[in-house]
Amino acid sequence: MNTPAQAIDRSLPRLGQGYVWQDLTVGQCLRTFARTVTETDLVNFIGVTGMLEAIFIEDGYEGAAMAGRPVPGALTYALIEGFILQTMIQGTGLAMLELHQKILAPVLVGDTIEAQIEVTGIRPTSKSGRAVVDSRIDVFNQRGVLVMTYTATRLLAGRA
Questions:
Q1: Contact assessment for residue 75 and residue 113, using Cβ atoms and an 8 Å cutoff
Q2: Where do the domains of the chain lie, and which CATH numbers do they carry?
Q3: PANTHER family in the record, alphabetically (predicted)?
Q4: What percent of the residues of the chain are helix, what percent strand, and what percent coil, each to the nearest 5?
Q5: pLDDT for 78-128, tens place per residue?
Q6: DSSP line for 101-137
Q7: Above 70 in pLDDT, residue 28?
Q8: What proportion of the chain, given as a percentage, has pLDDT over 90?
Q9: Residues 84, 138: Cα–Cα separation, whole Å
């Protein structure tokens, strides 16, 4: 008969633990899960950020440059970063150091987005066990259209 453990075994691998920098290589590519952007996502995001622009809050806004319910580029970025944080750098990401972003096409409510990440640079720091990791993130919609691209420079933990 199995008995419950008296204490957590800290030597066991942690589920969902992100990559340490030593597990990454320049040129390595990864992709996120896909996620459909919902009306609820839009409403919650503009409510919490205060992005109460007419194109985001008024369905069918007559001054809109396009049909459909566009979402802020910041929401697209936040959803993709959520995937990256939950899967690639959970527990190992120490800081976002720099970000350069280009929005190339609109994302609308009902679009499904996913991203491809390419590691473009790894520079160990003078402080043991850390490195600055550069990456390029390309975000696509369900039609394969590149809607956003950005580069990120992050500080990642490593093995000592």
A1: no
A2: 21-157 (3.10.129.10)
A3: BETA-METHYLMALYL-COA DEHYDRATASE (PTHR43664:SF1), MONOAMINE OXIDASE-RELATED (PTHR43664)
A4: 20, 35, 45
A5: 999 999 999 999 999 999 999 999 999 999 999 999 999 999 999 999 987
A6: EEE-S--BTT-EEEEEEEEEEEEE-SSTTEEEEEEEE
A7: yes
A8: 74
A9: 12
Our CA angle for 48, 96, 27, nearest 5°, is 125
From 88, 154, 90, select the one nearest 115 (Cα to Cα).
88
The residues, any chain, with a CB within 8 Å of residue 50's CB and separated by 6 or more, are none
Pairwise pLDDT comparison (127 vs 26), residue with the higher score: 26
- Residue 55's H or E segment, with its range, is helix 54-57
* CA-closest candidate to residue 75, choices 42, 113, 119: 42
What φ, ψ does residue 49 adopt, rounded to 5°?
-95, -20
Burial class (CB in 10 A: 0-12, 13-18, 19+), 80: buried
Q: Which residues contact 47 (CB under 8 A, 6 or more apart)?
A: none
pLDDT of 65 > 70? The answer is yes
Residue 32: pLDDT band (50, 70, 90) is very high
pTM over 0.85: yes
Spacing of C-alpha 79 from chain mean position: 6
